Amino acid sequence: MSETRGTARRDHGYHARVSRSDDTRLALLRAAERLILTDGVAAVSLREIAVEAGQRNHSAVLYHFGDKRGLLDAILERHSQPIQTGWIATLKHVESWGALDLPKLVSLLVRPIVDKLDDADGGRAYVVVCAELLSNRQFALTTMRAARADGALAICEKIVEHLPSLPPALLELRMTRVASMIYTGTVDYLRLSEAGAEITREAFVTDLIEAIVAMLSAQSAERLTAPIVAEASGVMPRRVAPSAADEGARESKPARRGPRSRVS
User: Fold this and answer.
1) Domains of the chain
2) Using H for helix, E for strand and C for coil, what is the string for 26-63?
C-alpha cells in the first residue's frame, strides 16, 4: 500500500514538472511573438524574451529551444500545424470528387493564412514572422521546418501540377513569389487597414488569390520572346506553329515534381 502511494506521489510530481515546463515554453513563445510583432526578428534578443516572459533564468530560451532558430521553428509550427492539417484533410476529402482547379487550390492555400489575423493568440505575429523571414539570410523561411512539413509540400505539389511548362529555376522563383505575395501582401493589408484604408477582408483575399493565379499561369518570358527574337535576327523567317509530334510529346511528358515548399 505504501509503495502504491509512493509511486502515485512520484507520478504526480513528474506530471506537475512537465506541466510547468509546458507552461514556461508557451509563455516564452508568446513573449517572443509579442516582441517580434513590434520590433522584428533581428532586433529581439533571447534575453529580452526571457525577461518579457517573467523568467528569472535568462537561459530559459536556450533550455527550451536550443537557439534562436529553434525558437522561430517553434513559433512557426505552433501556428502552422493546424493550417497544414487542414490542407491535408481537405486535399484527401476532395480527391473523391475530382481534382481541384488552380483557383480553388490557391484559395485553399491563402485563406487560412490570412485568417491568422483574427487569431488573438499570436496570429498576427506569425504572419509578420513569415514575411520577415522571406528575406532573412540567417533564418530563411524556406529552410525552416514548417516549410518542409507534409501539408505545405502536398498543396504545393498539387499547385505545380496546374502550371505551364517552366524551367526549374523559374518554377522555383514563382513558388517563392507565391509566399511573398501571401505573407508580405497580408502584412501590407494589415498596415493599410490599421491606417484607415477602406478595403474589406474578402476584397483583399479575392484580389490576392486572383493575382497569384495570374502570376502562376503566365507563360515564361523566354517562351514568349524567343520566336520574336529569332524572327528579327533572320534565324526564323516566320512564326512556326508546333507540330503534331511536338504536341504529342508535350501531352506524354510525365508529371513534374514541385520545388521545395515556400509556404509554412
Assistant:
1) 1-66 (1.10.10), 68-252 (1.10.357.10)
2) HHHHHHHHHHHHHHCCCCCCHHHHHHHCCCCCCCHHHH
